Amino acid sequence: QVQLVESGGGLVQAGGTLTLSCVASGRAFSSYSVAWFRQSPGKDRKFVAAINWGGVTTYYDDSVKGRFTISRDNNKNTVGLQMSSLRPEDTAVYYCAARTQGTVVPSSNQPRIYDYWGQGTRVTVSS
């Protein structure tokens, strides 16, 4: 069993930077692929970025490409999401998700393939 805990959310002005962290329990986490999703009120959960077990392969939604960077430190069981040039439309609750398959695949943008989820951290970008 893996537990995921997100942190780092908050209020930031448009154009600003914020870094989210996802800390996991369990030694097997280093073999999992991990993704960030976000959800705005009244909307479906949407894919943001994913990273493979080794941190070499990444995958971004077009809406965040060039602005967000996903990374991981398997020694610390942590996956980060650095968000820059933030926009009001980035406002959402951000969730960390992990799956036991370590590779990033085209379907890595689908919430249904993930086995574990965190409780989320709220990000608000003011205009």
Structure, explained:
The protein is mainly β and 127 residues long. It is built from no helices and 11 strands. It has strands at residues 4-7, 10-13, 18-24, 33-39, 46-51, 58-60, 68-73, 78-83, 92-99, 116-117, 121-126. The model has no long low-confidence stretch (mean pLDDT 96).
Structural class: mainly beta
Q: How many beta-strand runs?
A: 11
Largest sheet: 7 strands, mixed
Residue share in β-strands? over 45%
Radius of gyration: 13 Å
Summarize the structure.
This protein is mainly beta and 127 residues long. The chain is 0% helix and 46% strand.
Layout of helices and strands:
Layout: E1 4-7, E2 10-13, E3 18-24, E4 33-39, E5 46-51, E6 58-60, E7 68-73, E8 78-83, E9 92-99, E10 116-117, E11 121-126
Parallel strand pairs: 2-11
Antiparallel strand pairs: 1-3, 3-8, 4-5, 4-9, 5-6, 7-8, 9-10, 9-11
Name its key features:
0% helix, 127 residues, seven-stranded mixed beta sheet, mainly beta, four-stranded antiparallel beta sheet
